[in-house]
């Protein structure tokens, strides 16, 4: 005689889902609280600082007419060409992938004490950082393996050309440009309003490090906004060749009146952010991890 199994009620299913979510959240918290993970986050932020110090140096070299690719990819290529460069690339790749995991955990389980709208905004931001850190990590891993990660300007132009070939492609490219400009502006605001002090740093971080962070976030934001402006200009002119990465943005800046001085100032801003990353690595706000 067949028996009918009782189906779980909606409340029971909801409770099981809640319990599963709580277990996943605790597992994420355990990872974040582990000493090994925190050490890797510190290493990752220090590696990120090295990349920006090199980016600042390349930007200044570009301003002085000595060529080179002034981008994060160019900075890693320059470092990879040095003695023990491949070993350094492995360390940087591990550090960057750790930062990606950190932000992935934040996107999935973090910001529990924040209001719903703020929490959603922070989670989206963490998700974007997962993509950024992962992309840089893959570039570092490729360089460690002896492969060339490619030119940032060519990559941007290729992406723009592909988007423009799609239906409503010109509008898509313009939207990409606007989104990138918005990210850049948000980082400028983060620097000007010093939002990073509360979000990123624990109490006790030195004031000089906070000042470098202000300069660094503004410089990063301006460079990103310039990249977005190039995408927008490519859409307006319907010319994919107008697009470019950070290197293209800095070269465009160099072509402006007083471009040499503007580019040197930008390079110093990147260097300031690089030093700030070392301060950040030593004073990470563990409540945000």
TrEMBL record:
- Which domain of life, per UniProt? Bacteria
The DUF1206 domain, residue ranges: 43-109, 127-194, 215-281
Q: Where is this region: Disordered?
A: 1-27
Q: Which residues cross the membrane?
A: 36-60, 87-109, 130-147, 167-189, 217-236, 256-279
Q: Report if keyword Membrane is assigned.
A: yes
The keyword Membrane is assigned to this record: yes
Give the keywords, sorted: Membrane, Transmembrane, Transmembrane helix
Q: Which InterPro entries match?
A: DUF1206
Could you identify this protein by its name? DUF1206 domain-containing protein
Organism whose genome encodes this protein: Ammonicoccus fulvus
Specify the taxonomic lineage: Bacteria, Bacillati, Actinomycetota, Actinomycetes, Propionibacteriales
